[in-house]
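Incident log, structure service

09:12 report received: a user says their structure output differs between two submissions of the same chain.
09:20 pulled the input from the user's history:
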Amino acid sequence: MTDNNKQNRQFKAPFHVYEKRLENIEEIISELTQLAAENAIFIVEGKRDVQALKKLGVEGHFEIATQRSLSNFCESIAQLNEKVIILTDWDRRGNMLMLKITKHFHSLGVNPDIRLRERLISIVQKEIKDVESLHTYVIKLRRLVGHSTIQGHFNE
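09:34 re-ran on a clean worker, output below:
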């Protein structure tokens, strides 16, 4: 059995599907990096989420939503007057947290961005369920595809 056949057996879809998936994820990573440069605040659930995003090259202002009461958390972030990006997990707990955070922010006149989170969910589907797995998943895709879709980003 060839190496390519062995690799394909561990994946459920044709090769081009994973190539497109990697391309789409790397576009999102690029957008996150741009937002970080614009001082956006990324809301995540835990330290491992921050580590995974940093490993993917996203260096920004991260806030962990699970370390204090949501009302105090949202009020302190709203006072910063920066763009807010919610990147909670897409499991049941993460979805509930995203809804609660969004509701708190709306009551404070802040419209948090969940667009990138929703795009990630649609791309990874059921392959992974959380932000902390994103780095490992991207590395897995890069190995399968044999390259990064972004020039110079094949580092692990």
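09:41 both user submissions now match this output. Likely a transient worker issue. Closing.
09:42 reviewer note: The mean pLDDT is 89. Helices lie at 3-9, 15-37, 47-55, 70-78, 92-107, 115-124, 134-145.
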